[in-house]
Amino acid sequence: MCASLLVVSACIPADSQIPRVGGMAIEYPAVTLAGDTVTLASLRGEVVLLNLWATWCVPCRTETPYLQDLYEEYGPRGFQIVGISLDTGDASNQVEAFVEEYGVTYTILHDPQMRGMELYQVPGLPATFMIDREGVIRWIRYGPIQEGDPDFLGALEELL
Predict the structure, then answer these.
(1) Is the terminal CB of the chain with fewer CB neighbours within 10 Å at N or C?
(2) Is the separation of the CB atoms in 54 and 131 below 8 Å?
(3) Please, where are the H alpha helices in 11-149?
(4) Is residue 66 included in any domain, yes or no?
(5) What is the pLDDT of residues 46-103, one digit of tens each?
(6) Residue 12 included in any domain
(7) Could you tell me the CATH number of the domain that includes residue 33?
(8) Pairing mode, if any, of strands 47-53 and 79-85?
(9) What's the domain range around 142?
(10) Do the domain assignments include residue 8?
């Protein structure tokens, strides 16, 4: 048992922060499809749903229409969704096609180096972090958000 724990902890860089509910969101600049850089700090004052995803991820494709519906419903109350595509390499065309196919109007960024996987210690996609207006993580989900999830909706209502 101890050897297993040592191996697991050895995989996490000693200087890295582990995202947790109640901790500050880790700064994570990424670029829009137009090439502009967006940071989480620039969104302070808004409730932010940070969603890490990829075009090839089937659960990501399943949850995207629900995320779009949420954005349309709650956006006027100060709710922002930042979807960061972790498609590697020069996948901008695939990301643009995905955005068009799903009618996504919330902020989409691209991280072709997949830095978000390490920064946010993500075991798989999708991974979602709800961040309050002061930049504190208030809710985490590894895996897709199911439509009507009462835990998710309760956390969202509480923050708004």
Answers:
(1) N
(2) no
(3) 58-74, 92-102, 115-119
(4) yes
(5) 999 999 999 999 999 999 999 999 999 999 999 999 999 999 988 999 999 999 999 9
(6) no
(7) 3.40.30.10
(8) parallel
(9) 20-159
(10) no
